[in-house]
Amino acid sequence: MKWIELQYDEDKPSRIAEYTDDDVGCYFDGAFGFAYNAWRLINLAHEHEMLADLGTLADVDFTATVIDLTDDQFDRLVSLSDYAVDWLNENTLRPPFIEGKREYYLYWGWEDGDFGLWKYDEDGERTD
Fold it and tell me: First vs last Cα of the chain: how many Å apart?
């Protein structure tokens, strides 16, 4: 991953990260639990200058298991983590690349409980 500086605009990030197929893989292992990994995901997006109100999660204990969260806390956590995934996919550069005769695409997302940057083919099938 490399950072690319952007022209200043107060409503947009000042830099953008470019990822390549060398960056593909699991970033947050599902064994740590959803609440913990959702918080790590939100932090990752925040490090990429995601503009979001993290104060909405001020009362959420991210060391707790999902069972320990109230319904409202869980809903806010899910909502902001979904927003973070979408934000990363819209605000990081992940150019398509060709391997052999096939074109591949990189997307951030949850796969089998793990969060990462995954490689998909033109049919939307994960290939890594």
Answer: 18
Q: Token match 């990363």: residue? A: 88
Q: Give the pLDDT of residue 52.
A: 67
Angle between helices 71-91 and 34-47 (to 10 degrees): 40
Predicted TM-score (pTM) of this structure: 0.83
**118: which strand partners?**
107
CA atoms of 119 and 128, how far apart (whole Å) = 6
H or E stretch at 82: helix 71-91
**Which residue in the block uniquely carries the two structure tokens 């932090």?**
43
Helix (H) or strand (E) holding 105: strand 102-111
Taking 70 as the pLDDT cut, the residues of the chain under it are 52-66
The CA-based angle 89-90-95, given to 5 degrees, is: 70
